[in-house]
Amino acid sequence: MPASPSSSAQAAREAVAHRLRDLRKEAGLTVVQLAAACGWHHSKTSRIENALTGPSANDIRSWCAATHTEDEARGLVIQSINAESMYRQWRDQVRAGLRHLQESRVKAFRDTECHRLYSAGLVPGLLQTEGYALAVLGIAADVHGLPADDSAKAARARIERSRIVHERGYRFIVVIEESVLHYRIADPDAMAAQLGYLLTAGALPAVSLGIVPTTARRTHWPEETFHIYDNRLVSVELVSAEVNVTQPGEITQYLDTFERLRAMAVYGAEARLLVRRAIEALD
């Protein structure tokens, strides 16, 4: 089983920490001696080496100067920045409001020609109706202690952003689990509208909508929600954070996983039948 995104982000942090520790040991310095050479308390050295504290760019430069390995500083600074950018807490992202979060992603959406989306829990944002989006973002606002009206503004921003599915030059390959159709995220009317829209959206020329039936023989287990932007970025949604994966090897893992999930899905008339059954179940 592949490592979870949070584990992947932590592993990236630890790789930097372990390399710094190796440089100290290779230079024959103790934790205390390294700290003295850098001008900080020895506890900071321990925190950095144990990946409890992420080093700043200046910390890394000072470390490399103390160990006479200045030629490694630039590479380690870049590696550390990449590791920290992989893991961004939702709390930090939503501080400016859910609407700002929706609008901040418009450029990434428009810079991507082929979107691959997988979701085991929700209808993906690009295929949401306003009523469904309002319910989803209302839950998010409640979880993060944000004003109720923020979710309404965010829902409108999300719908505005999703108009891209009707524009030329983009392709959207969406795979969801059948259970997504039955989760009562919104009230019955909003759910009926959302499911009805899936029938419409799934017929759009730019959209390929696959649904993995609950009765399908699994060749891959359900995964966390993730969005692949061309072949350059994977955005993974966790409870506490969003993980941005940019390493080519890890992106390849997600592409392979997506294809496995995609192969289990049904399309066209079979997919529409599953949606209609979910609509009937609302009664």
Topology of this structure?
Layout lengths: L4 H22 L4 H8 L3 H8 L7 H10 L6 H14 E3 H4 L4 H6 L2 H5 L3 E6 L10 H14 L4 H15 L8 E7 L10 H14 L5 E6 L13 E4 L3 E5 L3 E5 L2 H17 L3 H14 L2
Parallel strand pairs: 2-3, 3-4
Antiparallel strand pairs: 1-7, 2-5, 5-6, 6-7
Helix pairs in contact: 1-5, 2-3, 4-5, 9-10, 11-13
Question: What can you tell me about this protein's structure?
Answer:
It comes from Streptomyces graminearus. The protein is α/β, with parallel strands linked by helices. It has two domains: 5-87, 434 Repressor (Amino-terminal Domain), CATH 1.10.260.40; 97-281, Endonuclease, Chain A (2-Layer Sandwich). The chain contains 13 helices and seven strands. The chain has helices at 5-26, 31-38, 42-49, 57-66, 73-86, 90-93, 98-103, 106-110, 130-143, 148-162, 188-201, 248-264, 268-281; strands spanning 87-89, 114-119, 171-177, 207-212, 226-229, 233-237, 241-245. A seven-stranded mixed β-sheet has the order 1-7-6-5-2-3-4. Strand 3 (171-177), helix 11 and strand 4 (207-212) form a beta-alpha-beta unit. The two termini are 39 Å apart. The model has no long low-confidence stretch (mean pLDDT 89).
